[in-house]
Amino acid sequence: MSASGGQQGTDSRQNPQSAPQPEQPSDSHSEQSGVLRVGEAEADWTGDAQYFEYSRAANPIGAGITSQVPIRTFPAALHRGTATTVEVLDLSGDLNTPWPATSPALQAAFVVIQAGESLSTAARATSQLFYVLSGSGRSELDDQEIFWSKGDVIVVPMAASVLHSAQGRAVLYWVTDEPLMQYLGVAPISSRFSPTRFPADRIRHELDLIASDPRAMDRNRLSVLLGTAPQTQTLTITHVLWAMFGLLPTAAVQRPHRHQSVALDLIVQCEPGCFTLVGSTVNAEGEIERPTRVDWESGGAFVTPPGLWHAHYNESGSDAYLLPVQDAGLHTYLRSLDIRFVSPRSGR
Q: Residue spans with biased composition (Polar residues) (predicted)?
């Protein structure tokens, strides 16, 4: 068999004596410059060409060729150790990627910094998000310095590395779009936004205003979406990332919705009895059929795959808070987010 998949004897490259000889260039300049004319090169670029019958290749995910994004939880125990370290929430084995990844486009990690210590993080990424799960400190990038404390959200554009220093022990939830860059085989060449900090007290204030609205409980989610000024088309925190700070009140049920972005959900605070139901279909009453239950844990995280319905429940007796981070900035720009909601009153 030849490299292009033909039978031996039918590819003239296998028998140079019988192959038509290319016309020799008469232009001495082309010989010196190395320019290849059509028909000159035996390496005719067909070696990697493949051909598929449409119905067998149109849906490689459904056929199992491209792996599904799994529902996966990551316990808070991952960031409770005594070492200064980065704990990557790595699903590269499930996603069949040669680089670390938590979803096809994003990587999440817990950054643990012990009191008085420092740690550098680096990513070949257009967007990095840090949520301060605990502690306080500062981050340095280029000639800039950002001070942070518990509950703050920080986004950083392309940067070779960021140096984090903690006053007391600190834990950061870190999300980047490096897997997307790795897949595309590219590196960012310009910043699409400025380093931005969202102070915890301002986030809570905005959420309180939303929750105090008389019609708040009619809404599919009680949350504040975080955005940066340059994202005028997507209204997202970066041009790739989407982030919200959400409230799940006591005894609340937040009805199902779905979208094509992957959600990397961080549970900021909850008591036992909070959970999410995830499934592929909803019935006529708007309930998820044959769901998978994901129990929440304070400081834990989980992955909600794209295209699946998911609903949140709080049976704990205390309010709960979460911070989902998604690649919905990119999906919104591509017009592929396809977000859908179940009506709060009448099913679908």
A: 1-33
Answer yes or no: do 82 and 189 share one domain: yes
Q: What are the pLDDT digits (tens) for 4-47?
A: 333 333 343 334 344 444 444 444 444 455 555 555 545 788 88
Strands 274-279 and 320-326: unpaired
- Tell me: do 85 and 128 sit in the same domain: yes
- CA separation for the pair 302, 324 (Å, rounded): 9
- Token pair 């929440």: residue: 296
Number of separate domains in the chain? 2
Q: In what order do the strands lie in the sheet with 107-113?
A: 85-88, 107-113, 170-176, 127-134, 153-157, 196-198
Integer Cα distance of 24 and 17 in angstroms? 16
pLDDT tens digit sequence for 188-236: 999 999 999 999 999 999 999 999 998 877 887 899 999 999 999 999 9
- Can you give the residue range of the structural domain that contains 259? 200-341
pLDDT band at 299 (very low <50, low <70, confident <90, very high): very high
Structure token pair of residue 139: 């981050």
Given strand 292-295, what is the order of strands in its sheet? 292-295, 274-279, 309-314, 253-258, 340-341
Say if residue 222 is in the same domain as residue 299. Answer: yes
Average pLDDT of the segment spanning 262-279: 98
Give the helix ranges, DSSP H, for the chain: 28-33, 54-57, 92-95, 178-184, 200-211, 328-334
Q: In one letter, which amino acid is 326? A: Q
Residue type, 200: A
Whole-angstrom Cα distance, residue 130 to residue 120? Answer: 13
The two three-digit tokens of residue 327, written as one number: 């690649």
What is the residue whose two structure tokens read 């306080």?
136
